[in-house]
Amino acid sequence: MSTASPPDTSTRHDQHGHWPQAESVEDFRHNLAAVHARMAAACRRVGRDPASVRLLPVSKTKPEATLRMAYAAGCRLLGENKPQEAYHKWEAMADLVDLHWSIIGHLQTNKAKYVARFASEFQALDSLRVAGALENRLQIEGRGMDVFVQVNTSGEASKFGLHPDDVAAFLRELPAFSALRVRGLMTLAVFSAEAGRVRECFVRLRGLRDRLRQQAPDGVGLDELSMGMSGDYEIAIEEGATVVRVGQAIFGARPLPDSHYWPPAGEIQSP
Question: Model's pTM, two decimal places?
Answer without folding.
Answer: 0.90
